[in-house]
Structures are given as structure tokens and as C-alpha cells.
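## Example record

The block below lists the input lines for one assembly entry, exactly as stored, with component labels intact.
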Amino acid sequence: MHQISDVCQTMNESHNELFQMKTRRDFIKISALGLGAAALTAGASKMGMGFPLLGSENEPGSEENTLRRVPTYCEVCFWKCAGWAHVTEDGNIIKITGNDDDPQCNGRLCPRGTGGVGMFNDPDRLKTPLIRVVKDGEQTYREASWEEALSLIASKMSDLRSKYGPESMALFMHGAPGTHFSHLLKAYGTLNLAAPSFAQCRGPRDVGFEATFGESVSSPEVTDIRDTRCLVLIGSHIGENMHNGQVQEMSQAIDNGAVIITVDPRLSTAASKSKYWLPIKPSTDIALLLSWIHVLIYDDLYNKEYVSTYAEGFDELKAYVKKFTPEWAYGITTLKPDLIRNTAREMANAAPSVIIHPGRHAAWYGDDVQRSRAMAILNALLGSWGNRGGFFFKEGIKLPEFPHPEYPKPAWTWKDLLNGKYPMANEAPTNLVIESSIPTGDQEAKIKGWIVAGTNLISAIPLKEELSKAMQSLELLVVVDTMPMEITGYADVVLPECTYLERYDDIRATSHREPTLCLRMPAVEAKNQTKPAWWIAKQLGERLGLGAYFNYTDFSEVLDWQLKQVGSSLDEMKRIGVKKLSRESSPYLEPGTSHTFKTASGKIQLYSHELAEAGFDPLPAFTKHPEPEEGFYRLIYGRAPMHTFSRTANNPNLVALMPENSVWINPQVAKIWGIKKDQYVWLKNQDGAVSNFAVKVRITERIRWDSVYIVHGFGHHHKPLHFAYGRGVNDTELITNVMMDPIMGGTGMRGNFITFLTEDPGKEVEA
Amino acid sequence: MRYAMAIDTKKCVGCSDCVIACQTENNVPLGFCRDWVTETVDGTYPNVSIELRSERCNHCDNSPCVRCCPTGASHIEDGGIVLVTQNKCIGCGACIQACPYEARYSHPDGYVDKCTFCIHRVRKGDKPACVAVCPTRCMYFGDLEDPNSEITNVLKNRKFKALAPEAGTNPQIYYLI
Amino acid sequence: MKEELFVSGRNIPNIDPYLNIWHWQIPVYLFLGGLAAGILFFAALFTIMGKEKEMPAAVRTAPIIAPIALILGLFALFLDLKHKLFFWQLYTTIRIESPMSWGAWVLMAITPLSMLWVASYVKELVPGWNWKYRLLENFETFIIKYRLWMAWMIIVLSVILGIYTGILLSAFNARPLWNTSILGPLFLVSGMSTGAATILLMSKSKEERRTMSWIDLLLIVVEIFFITHLIMGMKAGSQVQIDAVSLFLGGQFTVSFWVFVILLGLVFPAILEIVERLGYHIPVVIPVVLILLGGLMFRFIMVEAGQITRYLY
Ligand SMILES: Nc1nc2c(c(=O)[nH]1)N[C@H]1C(S)=C(S)[C@@H](COP(=O)(O)OP(=O)(O)OC[C@H]3O[C@@H](n4cnc5c(=O)[nH]c(N)nc54)[C@H](O)[C@@H]3O)O[C@H]1N2
Ligand SMILES: Nc1nc2c(c(=O)[nH]1)N[C@H]1C(S)=C(S)[C@@H](COP(=O)(O)OP(=O)(O)OC[C@H]3O[C@@H](n4cnc5c(=O)[nH]c(N)nc54)[C@H](O)[C@@H]3O)O[C@H]1N2
Ligand code: SF4
Ligand code: SF4
Ligand code: SF4
Ligand code: SF4
Ligand code: SF4
Ligand SMILES: [Mo]
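Predicted C-alpha cells for the full assembly:
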């Protein structure tokens, strides 16, 4: 009794503390708490003095036999490769390897997955729940017990529910924790659930392909790369974009002698492996695509049988692309007409075993659905969808949901916030939810509280001002993360999740070439006071009176129940990690049989009625985009194989491989500016936004003279990230011009231009 | 037996998985490495080429590091694997100077360390950790004296080169070009 | 433009961006070894020639320096080892192909010999010295009797030691700057020259000084000849060697090499000695100190610069 009243008391106190900050939510560096990291020495290894008394005979790996192997799937990116955590007797995870039975990784993790140990060992990890308080007039965090933090959040959520309705809560999520909090919020009564993987990532591509084939390419993509004869990469930089299965298959394709055609203003790694590299002028891809379509049709290279059997709108398309000759495209793209014709011919030669890869991160120039449409149309003309070496039909297995009461029906959802905008958004654009969290004039904001789980909005969303206004206006901001990333500094309550290596999550039930099941289970006990997302969601649910939705004590019960419904069990999965099931349908179109595409008419939409009805171009149009002014260069960004966005920026193992990003500058440009290799410069964009930190220069012929390139995910300004702080530059802070895709709300980010500052602009960095 | 490695520069994407896999497999302290990846860029935009190479000790047939070692700590195991016995090594650094590939480093614990061709795995019939992890499967490891081994075949069918052959060490890591 | 980089961020302490694994200990070790070799060589040489009387400093006084230099040198080497408590592993095997190994063994042999040598003269050097123990007195008599034998052993070992100080470096083909067979003789001569200079400094006899200064002059000339040979050979060598020697010809070691090693360490002391010979009085310490510093500097530069030179990257 005594204890409970104590807790209630402190809870009320913190509740009050929290209320004082309704108007202004300062960014707080969590290090104010002295939670700072352990020593930052060169290595985790003890620095030897050179005076050991007896050296051990060098028999590396002799401990191997005592290692335990625990199944998991990787959470360092969203490819979710299945693997094994290798655990020593004293509970240390020493390495992670791939599961041979997993078709997504074939026993081989990518460098980030192999480096997943660094996520577990990172000394900077969040350790306890934190609550924002005011101390001596300043906002700061104090450590809190789970009991206190959870009760505080639950009481605040109850308040919001009674004041504004449950719909006023929104969830931002990415990755595994998302599903647990989705369940919680659906039970609570809201469907305002958004992930950056839609509007900032694959949304435009998915909408474009759905409009054409009635189906998206999914994740993992249904691209049959391993059997292709021609792979066309338009910006997609596989090899740097380290999505494992695709990288492996691209290598197989190289072995098989497939022709690779890469369209990229930068000599990407993939471009360097390609038979044809088309060094396109950035932002002009649609022109190239239209002229390819022109060549296929007017040089009579397209797959007539396929088109007449499965597609509709060909005549409109043919008439439309008549004027888009390679000569026309040359003037726009700077690509020679011959090159355009030859590459079109290569595709046609390989058809239907050809893939015009739709890419994944497609939020480039605001006309991205249309670019994706053009790629989809090209695929249709070549007959690649549904054919070996093109796109296969996926097959998966659906696990039944663990029994729970039906979710309440919300009074409104994010769709009601659209007001006619983004008619084809089929997932909530994060930007929409953010905008709806800002009061306008005397209008209260519709959204009042956020849970953020597994996304670092600060570096994922290019809308700095909106984001900050929204966060100022919220009545509750809860961040669930493993690391003190920037977003945690804005939270009212920070909840430390344990890493994927220390927890159960949902079964990975993949739809791909074959259905697979895959288990993630704790390899070791969770460090410090960290907890898994399922536990946090359940605890909150119970405190919100939603206990019926969490009718289990441990998540393993849910998994066991689900697995048993499909003829497996938790015990079996603990042993094997991955279970492959055989498919029942054919992965390819069967010759001579009809196929109904999932479009309204059942046919591939070369001409999109759906788009026309929504008031958009039914056939993709090329729009000219602004070009950099004198002294400015287009900022393009991408991935490095050793890092995932910002989530690995502090991973000690991966930091050792790549501690910072660099800005790629063409030698000619460097010469004009007198910039030397490895020099550090600051970047300033067209709107005057200046990078927080200086970035190292890489002078390289791999980049055009009108563009610069940086790898996304660096330039962290949150001091508690000891390895990441101040290393490199953050592209997001230089993306102030966002080109919205009117069709689905994608945030095109490549319309920004930067110039160099060779002297310290003396910018003050938060934190 | 003569173990060797061949690495296909046409497939390597420079992801450095081989580096981190080696690090976790062999408990290489952070900040050190037994293997590493280099990139050479040649040409002028847009006529540019890249060569990516995963490098490590070449387990040279004519290994100066072994010859110069005053204690016999550096030695050649069966199959031509060049190894360092930790508790024989005095840390004099001679072998580090002797290696034209900068393939050795001084371990924080005092002894000299380098690629072992993952002999502890190879003896069990496994592939070295770097080879086993490489997502592009661009690395081949095996016995050159076995006419049927994968590596023998791949070297038979492809053009290849080795690094700094002029150093006269007869390196046994081959790069398929 | 050609661009070369490490994709996987290599930054190993003392290896990257360029090798720096041997620090001050090694040049000091080489210098002291060469110095001791030089001194002992002349002590043995004049003994064998029967010139003990004429060359008292060379035979008796200067050798006191030798064991001290050898022990200090060995200690410097010891300091350089990173796995120190395994030091004894040096003496569990003889590795014919490893200069480091036979260096260790030569030192093992010559250091006690040099001590015995000094011991055999201790009564002449320190009047009233008394060994206190009968056994030691007997032993002294014994070694005095076999001094000539010792001299023969020492002369062989000192030449080996002197050459060894050069071969220790030149055995490393991987360092293009060191990769020349001239280093052995060059370091031998340089060591002898420092030895001769030391004797010169310690000598009180005019005659002896004259002889030693002649010898020194000769050695300097030979040394300059060898260095020229080294540079010419490198310049005619492979690209890596051309790159290597360019460190001295416009590269980052140009000034230190030409000013401190060649001018101040060789040419200037040679001129001073010639001037002295022509009858002008020059305080002997000036050329001697210059030669010693030049010799030390030379080893520092060779060790430092050599490590920078490489085949790859
Ligand atoms: N400027 C710019 N913006 C971009 C992109 C770009 O290239 N440039 N890329 C866009 C794309 S394609 C995408 S998909 C998005 C990605 O955007 P995000 O998914 O937001 O990516 P991260 O920055 O990695 O943020 C992931 C967050 O999850 C946390 N986290 C990691 N593991 C766990 C866990 O197990 N549990 C919990 N609770 N948290 C965890 C990390 O600490 C980090 O704070 O960004 C988009 N935004
Ligand atoms: N290692 C690693 N791999 C990852 C991720 C990661 O964080 N790290 N994230 C994963 C995720 S969520 C995503 S969405 C994917 C993203 O991976 P992709 O879809 O492959 O990447 P994009 O960001 O679309 O493309 C980046 C490439 O586009 C080029 N580019 C820039 N502007 C233009 C242009 O105007 N036209 C053309 N044709 N090309 C242009 C750039 O030079 C760069 O090579 O990567 C996935 N894989
Ligand atoms: S691709 Fe790499 S980071 Fe992504 S899930 Fe697989 S192993 Fe992990
Ligand atoms: S793992 Fe393979 S592809 Fe990646 S860098 Fe190493 S050798 Fe190249
Ligand atoms: S690469 Fe270097 S360390 Fe390896 S065997 Fe050759 S010389 Fe020795
Ligand atoms: S450092 Fe060790 S392995 Fe290398 S030469 Fe010296 S004793 Fe031999
Ligand atoms: S063979 Fe083993 S020790 Fe050598 S680089 Fe590969 S993983 Fe490292
Ligand atoms: Mo993404």
C-alpha cells in the first residue's frame, strides 16, 4: 500500500512537472543526466601493456564449441535477414551469422547485420526510462522507474482520450517495435499510424506500380534478379543500398552474364559493374524513360503478345510518346541518342527476363509516382511482370492473429485529414500527421499526442520547421528507442527498448519466392533496465484498461499459439530459426492461361484511368525541375553499405568501418574552389541552411560537376552519441525545399542545392 | 596442400562485410583489422572505372615475414598458411617491416597479429569467416593443389593478378579481373 | 584523375597512414651497436697488429665504452619490444635468415667478450684495482694470456655486428629505401667512423690521434662514396625505389639528410680534420661530436624514412 501511494505521489509530481511545459518543449540532451557513455578508447579490448606473464597459445576460436546459437532476425535494416546470435557462456554475444535456410540472406548477413553486435554492445544505449522535468527553471530529464514512466504515460493518454478522443494520438514507427504499438493504439482507438517508409521512401514507387499492375513490388521486392538477363537500375544503387537478397542476386546476375544498365548521375558501385552506365543529368529520368518507351514502341521492340493479352491503354500510350524521341531526351538528359537506343534494344533482347528496377527510396522530385509509373509501363511493354527473370508472384503465409477483442472503430482517421490532398495515399504520410499536429490560427490541432517508436524523425523527415512546431504543440510525446537519438531529446518520456538481440518480436512471415517463417528470440537477458516493445505496449495497455487485448504474460505465448496454428511451434522454431514452406501457386504467368491483375479492370494500366479520375496525368509527363545556380550544386544522397540511415551511426563496430560521411566533389569543381582532398568544408543550401558540422571532402571522378553526393545518416548533433556526435554532415538539415508529390504525399528531397563554406560559419549547434 | 584465395573484383561491392566478419570471428580489437577493402578509381567523368579489392595477408609462398622473425613465432603451417604463435612473439616488429602489404599489426596485447586464413575454421572444413559472409560470393578459398577445387577452376578460367608481385613474395591472394 | 582509398576505414595505430612501428629505440640501438663495433674493431685490430703500446686509447681506454654501449643498445631494443616478457624467446632458437636473430646472438657473444676485454685491462686503467677473489685473479691471468685469441674473435664479431646494423634494415625488401645491399657496408663504415671518432676523443697520444684521424678521414671518404652509391643505385632502381630516394632529393627528409648527415656529419668534420692536419688547431671535440651526431642522425633518418616507403597504397 505504502509503495503504491508513493508511486502515485511521484507520478502526480511528474505529471505536474510535465504540464508546466505544455507550450515549449526544449530539446534536451540526455547527457545532462550524466548517463554518458563509458570510455571511448580505440577498442573494446583492454589496451595491453605488453607485459602479459603467460601468453596463450594462439588457437583462435577454441571457445567456439561452448557457444550457444540463438535464432534471430536482423533489425539493422528492414530486409530482416534471419541469423544466429552466438552467445558465450557468460552471456556475451560475440558474433551474428546468417541462417543458411533463409532465402532472404542465404546464410550471409550484410556488414550491418554482421555488425549488429555493436548495437547490443553500444555503451551509449538508453538505460532507464527518463522523464522530462523542470529543474531550476531548466528542462532536463531525470531517471524514472518503469512503473512511474508507464503510469505517467497511461494517465496522460487517458486524459487525451477523454479530452479529444483517442484519435488524437498518433504513432510514428519503423521496424519491429511498430507492430506492438500499432496493436496498442488500435486497441486504444486510433488509426493514425505513420512510418517514414511510406512518404519518405517507397510510397511513390508502390503507388505507381499499384496504379499500373494493381500490386506493389513489396518488401523484399519481387524482382527476380538472380534469373534476369538484363537489370536496369534507375538510381537504385544496389551494392551500396545493401538490401541483402538483392545484392546477392545482382552478383549472381553478373555471374550469369546478365546485362546491367545503370542510370545514375554518379558512378555508383552498381554503375561500375554495368555494361552501360548512363550518367544522366539529375532529375531528368522521366525524359529518358519516355524515350525508352518511344524506342520500344516505334522500333517495334515491345512484347506484343504480352501487351495485347494483359494490358490496356496501349494506343493512348503510343500516341502519347510519339514525340519523345531519343533526340528529344538527349537535350534534356545529356544522354546520347545512340546510347538510349542501344540500351532499349538490350532490354528488348533480354525480355521478358528483364527488370526495370523500381528502386526503393523513390521520394526524389515530387513527380515520383509518375516516374515509377513510367518504369512500370516500361516493364509492362517488356512483359517482365510475371515472368522468370522479371518480377515473380510472391507467396506468403498469414499467421492468424492472437485472439483479442475487436478494435474499436475510430471516429476519424488520417484519411479524414487529407482534405482532398494526396488522394492515392494508401498509408499515412508522416508529413500529414505532423502537419495535423500543428494548430492553425485559432484551430486546435487534431493530433495531440505522439508515440514514436523506432524512427528518428529528426533525420528522417525533411520538414524541420513543421516538425519542430508540431512537437512544441503536442501534449504528450513518448519516444521508445534503443539509443539516445536526436528525437529522444524532444520527448516528455523516453522509454528504453532493449535491442533486437534481447527480445521476442513478431514472427517474420515473409511473402517472397516461397513463404517463410522466422523467429526472433532473446539471445541474452536485456541489458540495464531496457524492455522489449511488446512488454511496454502491454504494460501501457493494461494501465489504459485494455488488458483484454494483451491476454498473455509473455510474448512467447503469442508466438507459440500462432506457430501452432500453422503446424509449427515455438520449440521447433527455437531449434531451426527459419522454416520454409512450399508454395502452392506458380511464381510466373503460365503460358496460355489468363491472369487477372489486381487493377480495377483486371488488366495492366498503361493508361491510368484511376489517375485521370483523380485529376492527374494518366500517362507520365516529364516536368523540368529547377537547376542549380552558379556556384551551387545539386545535393544528392544515398547509402553506404556499412550503415543504415542514422541508426548505425553510433554502432562502434560500424563506426570503425566508416566513421563519417564525406562530400563527393568532382575534381573540376574542387579546382574552381581550391578545395583539397580531405579538407573539411561546411555546406550551405539555397535557402541559407548551413550544415551543423564540417564535412570531409572526397574529390572524385565518380560524381558529376553539377552535383555533390553525401551518404545519409551522419552529422549527429546529440552529444550522448559519443561515436556519432559531430561526425560528418546531415543531409536532412540541408533539405529545406521539399517537393511534395501531389498524388500520395511523398516528400521529394532532391531539389536542393548547396555551396561550400571553407571557413567556419560559427554556427551554434544544439546540444 | 596449398591454400589460396581468389577474389573477384568484378563482383566485390566494397561492402566491407569481410572486414567486420573477420573482426567478430577473430575478436580483432576495434580500430585494428586483419583485412580491409581498397578502392581505385581511374579515368575522367563519365569514363570512369573502379576496382574494389578486399585485402589481407597474402600468405606468401616466399614470405619475408617468416624469414625475418627472430624467434620462429612467424611460421608456415600446413597448406602454406602463415601464422604467428602468440607466446613466441616478442613484438619486435621485424615482420611488420618485412611485409610489403602492411598486412600485420601490433595487437594491443603486444604480439603481432594478422590474417590466419581462419585456420581454426578451415581445419574443421569451414570456409574462412570473410569468405563465408561475403554477400556477393566473390571470394573463393581452397587448395590450389587440388585440381578439382573451386579455386583451381576459377583461376583456370579467369584472368587474374596478384598485388605487388615485384616485391617478390609470391603472394597467394589472387584478384580476378 | 586516379584516386586510391581505403573503403573500410583503415587507421591502425603505428601502421596507417604509414608505418611507424619502430621508434627512437631502433636507431639508438643501431647507433650504439655500430659504435661498439667500431671501437672493438680497432681495439682488436691494433692488438693483432701488435700496436697496443702505440694505440693505448684504442686498445685500452675506449673499449670501456663498448660494453656500456652494447648494454644500453640492448636495453633500447628491449624497450622497443611490444611483448617484452617473451624476450627470452630470442634465445631459444637460431634463425639463420633473420638478421634480428643473429644480431641477438652476436650481441650475446660480443657483449661478454667486450667485458672480458675491459676486465683484462682494468688493472692498467684503474691503478690499485684488486679482484679480491682468487678465482677472479686467476681468471684475469687467463684472459690476459689469451688476449690475442680474444682479439681475433672480437674482430670477426665486430665486423659482423657492424654489418648487421645495416643488414637489419636492408633485409627488408618491403621497405624500398632499405632494399639495397650497400646498407651493410655503409653502416659498418659509419659505425667504424663513429668508433674511430670516439677513440680520437679519448686519446691523449699525439701519434695515436694522428693515426686515428687519418683512419677517420678515410672512413668518411668511403662513407660518402657508399652514400653516393646508395643514391645512384636507388635512382636507377624500380619506381618504388625512385620514390623512396626522392625523400632525400626534394622530399620531406631532404634538409635533415643533406644538412645534418652529409654536411655537418661528414663533410664538415672531414674539412676540420684536414684543416687540423694542415697545422691549424681545432678542438678535437668539434669534429668528433659532429661525427657522432651525424651517425646517430643518419640512423634516425634511415629508420624513419625507410618505414614511410612502401610498395602499395
Ligand atoms: N535526408 C534524407 N532523409 C531520409 C532518407 C534519406 O536518404 N535522406 N531516407 C528515407 C528513407 S528511405 C527511410 S526508410 C527513412 C528511415 O527513417 P528511420 O526509420 O527513422 O531511420 P533511422 O534514422 O535509422 O531511425 C531509426 C530509429 O530507430 C531506432 N531503433 C533502432 N533499433 C530499434 C529498436 O529495436 N527499437 C526501437 N524502439 N528503436 C530502434 C534508432 O535508434 C533510430 O532512432 O528515412 C527517410 N529519410
Ligand atoms: N547500406 C544500406 N542499405 C540500405 C539502406 C541503408 O540505410 N543502408 N536503406 C534501405 C532503404 S529503407 C531504402 S529505401 C533503400 C534506398 O536505396 P535505393 O532505392 O537504391 O536508393 P535511392 O536513394 O533511391 O538512390 C540513391 C542513388 O540515386 C542516385 N541519384 C540521385 N539523383 C538521381 C537522379 O536524379 N536520377 C537518378 N537516376 N539517380 C539519382 C544517387 O547517385 C544514388 O546512387 O536502401 C535500402 N538499403
Ligand atoms: S540486409 Fe543487412 S542490415 Fe538488413 S536485415 Fe539483412 S543483414 Fe540486417
Ligand atoms: S564482403 Fe565481399 S563484396 Fe563485400 S567488400 Fe568483402 S569481398 Fe567485397
Ligand atoms: S602478406 Fe605479408 S605477412 Fe602475409 S605472408 Fe606475405 S609478407 Fe608475410
Ligand atoms: S614481432 Fe613477433 S612474429 Fe614478428 S618478427 Fe618479431 S617475434 Fe616474429
Ligand atoms: S581468412 Fe579469416 S583471418 Fe583472414 S581475413 Fe578472412 S576472416 Fe580474417
Ligand atoms: Mo527506405
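The domain at 201-394+589-613 of chain A is CATH 3.40.228.10 (Dimethylsulfoxide Reductase; domain 2). The first strand of chain A starts at residue 68 and ends at 73.
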